[in-house]
């Protein structure tokens, strides 16, 4: 049932061109510039008129929530707060009937996320769910929602569920932006066309596999890793670090690149691998400086760059080129090499990739 792959995780990484497509199919019709989401339609006005949106989730789903914060604030101009479900529920949060809560969960069974929903519901908020497992507890507890059509995810490390979540959240941000008039029609059409081209670009990113195997060989014995990104790639840095630590047991931290100088820079020496997600976007010039700061301290830079970039490759030790896309959609591409990197390093270290120690696929305990 692993379809010829050695592990479910690898199979699921390779399924992403299809799972992303399935998560937008029927919801995005670029030629006629239509966005259709049955789960959203009923609540479209309520969502579009919200004073703020609160996103609750855990782990990788929380990272998808962070991407959504950037998307919804930028495209739809609605304030968004992204909360760890476990912190939100225990800190006496301010919630009113005017609030919209979006809960994100692959399994739909995460205890803290479910409890956060129940709390928000008791205060009268409207709850919207983004779940992968049909009929799951969270899907049933929400007022409305949209499923990610990623298909069953068996590997404990979440991969295709993350990109499916980001795809659905992107569609929601686009719908809200066009409804509120904050996203111009031409821009909407551009983004739609770009989103349609994402599955083929993910396919291209997967062709980097052999190159990533080689890089993994060089770093498999590292004891620490730093992941840096800015803007839309900041949540990707967090996700890359989480993937590495959970399956390879290498200590890794993700940081917004600009925060490096406020502490983590002290860790950098010639032993420290630093994965920098430095694609061509609005923070590119800034991240060039961050790469210089790492190199000045002799850190080993593994850079994820946009195809054709010349500046970062002249500074980095290893370069992974991914296709160009709008910065709004970049996490869907930039996360792919990081998933592969963590996978190969874990395999080389002899770790149980699909069932890492101490972890369960659904965290139904609080
Ligand atoms: C990471 C991972 C976990 C889950 C988290 C939330 O690879 O799998 O961090 O993302 O436990 O799970 P769901 O999305 O099922 O609520």
Structural notes for this entry:
- With 366 residues, this protein is an alpha/beta fold.
- The chain is 45% helix and 16% strand.
- It contains 15 helices and 12 strands.
- Strands 4-3-5-6-7 form a 5-stranded parallel sheet, sandwiched between helices. A 5-stranded parallel sheet has the order 9-8-10-11-12, with helices on both faces. A two-stranded antiparallel ribbon has the order 1-2.
- Helix 5 packs antiparallel against helix 13 (234-248), helix 9 runs antiparallel to helix 10 and helix 13 packs parallel to helix 15.
- The longest helix is centred in the middle third of the chain and has 21 residues, at 160-180.
- It is globular and about 55 Å long.
- 53% of the residues are buried.
- The model has no long low-confidence stretch (mean pLDDT 95).
- The site of fructose -6-phosphate has 16 residues, from helix 5 and helix 13.
- GO terms for molecular function: carbohydrate derivative binding; glutamine-fructose-6-phosphate transaminase (isomerizing) activity.
- Keywords: Aminotransferase, Cytoplasm, Glutamine amidotransferase, Repeat, Transferase.
- Residues 43-182, 215-356 form the SIS domain.
Mean pLDDT equals: 95
Number of extended strands = 12
Q: Give the CA-based shape.
A: globular
Give the bound compounds. Answer: fructose -6-phosphate
Rounded to the nearest angstrom, the distance between the terminal CA atoms is 32 Å
Percent of residues in beta strands?
A: 15-25%
Multimerization state: single chain
Please give the share of residues in helix: 40-55%
Number of helices: 15
Strand order of the largest sheet: 4-3-5-6-7
Structural class: alpha/beta
Biggest beta sheet summary: 5 strands, parallel
Order of helices and strands: HHEEHHEHEHEHEHEHHHHEHEEHEEH
Low-confidence stretches: none
């Amino acid at each position: 049932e692993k379809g010829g792959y050695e592990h479910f995780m690898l199979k699921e990484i390779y399924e992403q061109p299809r799972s992303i497509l399935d998560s937008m199919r029927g919801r995005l019709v670029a030629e006629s510039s239509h966005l259709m989401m049955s789960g959203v339609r009923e609540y479209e006005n309520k969502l579009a008129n919200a004073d703020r949106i609160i996103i609750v989730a855990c782990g990788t789903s929380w990272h998808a929530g962070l991407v959504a914060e950037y998307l919804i604030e930028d495209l739809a101009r609605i304030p968004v707060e992204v909360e760890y479900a476990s912190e939100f529920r225990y800190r006496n949060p301010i919630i009113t009937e005017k609030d919209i809560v979006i809960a994100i969960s692959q399994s739909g069974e995460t205890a803290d996320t479910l409890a956060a929903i129940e709390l928000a519901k008791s205060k009268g908020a409207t709850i919207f769910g983004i779940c992968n497992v049909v009929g799951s507890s969270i899907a049933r507890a929400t007022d409305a929602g949209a499923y990610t059509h990623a298909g069953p995810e068996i590997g404990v490390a979440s991969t295709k569920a993350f990109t499916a979540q980001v795809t659905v959240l992107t569609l929601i941000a686009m719908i809200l932006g066009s409804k509120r008039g904050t996203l111009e029609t031409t821009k909407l059409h551009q983004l739609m066309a770009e989103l349609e081209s994402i599955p083929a670009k993910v396919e291209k990113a997967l062709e980097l596999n052999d190159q990533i195997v080689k890089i993994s060989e060089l770093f498999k014995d590292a004891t620490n890793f730093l992941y840096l990104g800015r803007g839309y790639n900041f949540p990707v840095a967090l996700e890359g670090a989480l993937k590495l630590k959970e399956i390879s047991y290498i200590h890794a931290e993700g940081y917004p690149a600009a925060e490096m100088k406020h502490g983590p820079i002290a860790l950098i020496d010639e032993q420290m691998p630093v994965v920098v997600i430095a694609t061509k976007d609005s923070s590119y010039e800034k991240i060039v400086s961050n790469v210089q700061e790492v190199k000045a301290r002799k850190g080993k830079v593994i850079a994820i760059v946009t195809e054709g970039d010349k500046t970062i490759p002249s500074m980095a030790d290893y370069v992974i080129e991914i296709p160009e896309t709008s910065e709004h959609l970049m996490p869907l591409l930039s996360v792919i090499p990081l998933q592969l990197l963590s996978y190969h390093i874990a395999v080389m270290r002899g770790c149980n990739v699909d069932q890492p120690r101490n972890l369960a696929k659904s965290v139904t305990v609080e």
